[in-house]
Amino acid sequence: xxxxxxxxxTAGSAIGADTxxxxxxxxxxxxxxxxxxxxxxxxxGGDSLSTIYIKNIDNxxxxxxxxxxxxxxxGSTISDQVLGxxxxxxxxxxxxITCDFGNLKANATRQFSIIIHAGPAPSSxxxxxxxxxxxxxxxxxxxxxxxxxxxxxxxxxxxxxxxTFLPPGIAKQLLPDDGxxxxxDGQRSGLIIPASSDGSIVSVDDGTSATGCGAFTCLGNxxxxxxxxxxxxxxxxxxxxxxxxxxxxxxxxxxxxFIHGTTIILAGNKGLCKNATSVDCQEPYVVSTGxxxxxxxxxxxxxxxxxx
Length: 308
Description:
The protein has one helix spanning 245-248, and strands at 13-17, 20-25, 47-56, 66-69, 72-73, 76-83, 90-91, 97-100, 109-117, 123-131, 146-153, 161-166, 172-174, 187-193, 200-209, 218-227, 237-244, 257-260, 263-265, 281-287, 291-298, 302-307.
């Protein structure tokens, strides 16, 4: 799964009873400290991915290790879809989600990921519980060992910025939205994300004026797009950038070029995509009553700016 992507904590908790110890956290190599859950960045109404490791850090086997996670927690909700190598050990049809890993030998590790639908900003407290040496019912006779607790930071939903996780197999156009039509926004920038077998961690932000366009005069705001920390997007990433008539002014759409990092994507016919696999090119722009929408293809994310 997608590991090491903008984790908000790198420490975990060692917890124990009767000298037995087990670890729950974002990284099995970090077994000290108090932080126990990690999250990918998210804005209100989006989804965050939390990848969780369970590790037996004792020198003996532990019997019947069970993790439970309530589906509704402090304004956020946990998806029924559990991901990762050991997701089959989790029953998400019930509440709480229950992951029964059975017996864990010394140093054995199990891994799964949950998807959290974020509530309102600025944050949501989340918790997972773990027991071992327990009956099939994790609420049975033995004392609950410990909670793995953390706070999910949640950014405001705006017309300029959105951050979310797209589950495996989902293709989507990601466009910032504050819950209104954003009709007064002179530039609407989004990413058109193809489906990925591992899912995609995505953010878009066009809230900063474009500068440093070299030989071109910058147009509107720069667009900062991030997909899986810059990984190559297969077959390519498509950027959707709408400039209103007010932003374009007297600029002919056929003269609008784009700068992606240091790569210049030419304006007009010279910059048009030649075939279905072309990248670093433009698809034909679309003129509407309020302005013009440009679709640009690139292999990766980063910063993109329009200019003329």
